[in-house]
Specification:
With 148 residues, this protein is α+β, with helices and mostly antiparallel strands. It contains four helices and four strands; from the N terminus they run H-H-E-E-E-H-E-H. Strand 2 and strand 3 form a beta hairpin.
Amino acid sequence: MDHLNPERRSDNMRRIRAQDTKPEMTVRRILFGLGLRYRLHARELPGIPDIVFRKEKIAIFVHGCFWHQHPVCGAAKYPKSNVEYWQGKLRRNVLRDHEHQLKIEEMGFRVLTIWECQTRDQDKLKVDLARELRAFGKTGISSRDVPK
């Protein structure tokens, strides 16, 4: 049973942002610290990726583990109340994410998904991001800032 009344629950849900979330800001700070410049929220691309490197055709999504149902994370649980609603909603989110990724890849972009839980260890995330972006052909990553 939800411990909040419907009006309070609605207010809480309304405050959840789609852009400039804490995990997204963490990823942006790391990329900027690596000397990389990027575009934000490319509306012309399916799913509106959070970060885009247009020249290299790299799209980065920063997903919340709950909202996008990270398969290996403990945060990807269904709420205990209104289960039918949440199962449908969260399944649709996952399906939509997959469809957007396929469409972007058809446009020649490579897609990188960063999960909210990955942003907790920023040192590891920095190394992982640098490695992934180099593998995607992104140049200009300041190697002095990335441990080997």
